[in-house]
Amino acid sequence: MSEPVVLGIESTCDETAAAVVRGRELVSNVVASSMDQHARYGGVIPEIASRAHAEAFAPVVSKALADASMTLGDIDAIAVSAGPGLAGCLAVGVSGAKALAWAAGKPLYGINHVIGHIAVTQLQFGAFPEDTLALIVSGGHTSLLHVRDVTRDIDVVGTTLDDAAGECFDKVARLLGFPYPGGPHIDRHGQLGDPHAIRVPQGLTQGRAGKQHPYDFSFSGVKTAVARWIEEQRAAGRDIPVDDICASLADSVATVLARKAIAGCEQYGSRTLIVGGGFSANSQLRAKLLEVGEAHGVIVRIPKIALCTDNGAMVAMLGVNLVEAGITPSDPAFPINSSMP
Ligand code: KG4
Ligand code: ZN
Fold it and tell me: What residues does substrate bind to (predicted)?
C-alpha cells in the first residue's frame, strides 16, 4: 500500500475532534470544544460533554474530510479513541465511528487515547527512535512509558499514585479563584513570580514507601501543602502573593517531572524523551525538560501546543501506525473502556 490515509476521531473528554493523516502528513485537523459550557461548574460535566459530542460529531467529521478535499471513499481506515475517558463521551465517538466504518466498508481501529499522545509527535519530528521513553501529562494522566514499538510494545515505567499534574494545577487554581481549567492561568501568573518564594514539597521524590517505584509521581500532597499555606496566610490577614504561589507550584511540579523522566531515560538507555498531553503546554515544564535533557544528553521532543492538547491528529497518526504494522482492525463489537490501562 502507498502511504495509508486515516481518519481519526476523538471524543474522550470535552473536545470533539477529527483529522486526516496521510503517512506522516497532517492533511486536515478540526477541533470543537465544549469547555465554555463547563467553565462555570469548575470541571467537565459528563452529561453536557456527551450532548455536545452528539451535536458536533457530524459537522466536525464532515469538515475534516472537506478540508482534506476527500470523501470517506478516499480513506483507507478509520481510528477512534476507545478509552480512557468519560464513558458517555466515548460512546458518542465510538458509535459514530462504527456507523461510518460500516456504511463506507472501511476497517476501524479502536485506539488508546494516551498512546495517541505519543504517536502524534511523529507529525512534527518524524519516525520514533528505536527505544524511547514518553512522558504523558494531562488533566487525567501522568505516565512515564517505555516505548519499544508504539503499536504493540509499551511498558509503564511510572505513573501518578493520586492526582495527575494538570488536576493538581486545576485544584490550586480554583483556590486562587481562576476559572476551569486553571492550568493555563497558573502558567501565566507563574511566569511573573518568584519560583523560590514559597517552599512547595516535591511530592514523592523517592517512590512508594518500601517499594521500588522510583518513577511514580504523587501530586495530591503538593496541592494540600499549597492549600494549607494559602489558608494560613488568609487566617493571618496577609495578602496572597498569587504570582509567587503559581511560580513556586509550577517549579516544584516541573522539577520532579523533568528529573524523573530524564533519570528514566538514563536507566533505560533512551537518548530521546517524547512528551505529550495537555499539561505539556506548560511553559515551566517545557523549559525544565529542555534544560535537564540538555544537561544529561537526552533529546526532548515536545510538540507544538496544538499537538499536545486533545485532537484527532493523534488518533489518526496512531491509526496509520497500526495500518502500516499490519495489525488486524478491531472487531465491530469492540467496547469502549473508560479506564483503559
Ligand atoms: O490533555 P488535555 O487537553 O485533557 C485531558 O486529557 O486531561 O489536558 C488538560 C489539562 C488541564 O488540567 C489543564 O489545566 C492543563 O492540561 N493545561 C495546563 C496548561 N495548558 C493546559 N496546565 C499548565 N499549564 C498550561 N499551560
Ligand atoms: Zn489527552
Answer: 136-140, 170, 183, 187, 282
Q: In angstroms, what is the span from residue 165 Cα to ligand 1's centroid?
A: 9
pLDDT of residue 60 exceeding 60: yes
Query: Hey, whose CA ends up nearest to atom 11 of ligand 1?
Result: 139
Burial class (CB in 10 A: 0-12, 13-18, 19+), 102: exposed
Q: Measured from the CB, is residue 278 less than 6 Å from ligand 1?
A: yes
Q: Which among 311, 201, 326, 306 has a CA at the least distance from the CA of 256? A: 201
Q: Is the ipTM of this complex over 0.95?
A: yes
**Domain chopping of the chain, boundaries:** 5-119+311-324, 126-306
**The pLDDT of residue 130:** 84
Mutate to test the pocket of ligand 1, among 89, 136, 169, 288 (most ligand atoms within 8 A of CB): 169
What is the dihedral sign for C-alpha 85, 87, 88, 92? positive
* pLDDT tens digit sequence for 67-90: 999 999 999 999 999 999 999 999
Give the mean pLDDT of the chain. 94
